[in-house]
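Here is the promised in-class demo. Please do not try to memorize the tokens; focus on the logic of going from shape to residues.
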């Protein structure tokens, strides 16, 4: 594994706000930059959905501001 790939992955993970131990950087570098970016974006999207669902359950947000597709998705998640 090239040091350049590890350095690039370390930079990406720091910029994403996570950082990572060296063994994870090696794994992510082997998986590729694009795959890592996609995984981070998917993780962020899933966290956003969970946070919104928790806010809805706590009464801190309302369904009225959500699009129909987002309401449907939250309903599916709550039934899973």
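The designed amino acids, position by position:
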């Amino acid at each position: 594994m090239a040091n350049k790939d590890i350095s690039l992955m370390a930079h990406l993970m720091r910029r994403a706000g996570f950082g990572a131990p060296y063994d994870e950087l090696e794994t992510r570098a082997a998986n590729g930059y694009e795959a890592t970016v996609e995984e981070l974006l998917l993780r962020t999207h899933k966290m956003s959905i969970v946070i919104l669902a928790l806010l809805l359950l706590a009464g801190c947000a309302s369904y009225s501001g959500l699009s129909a597709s987002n309401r449907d998705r939250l309903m599916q998640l709550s039934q899973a």
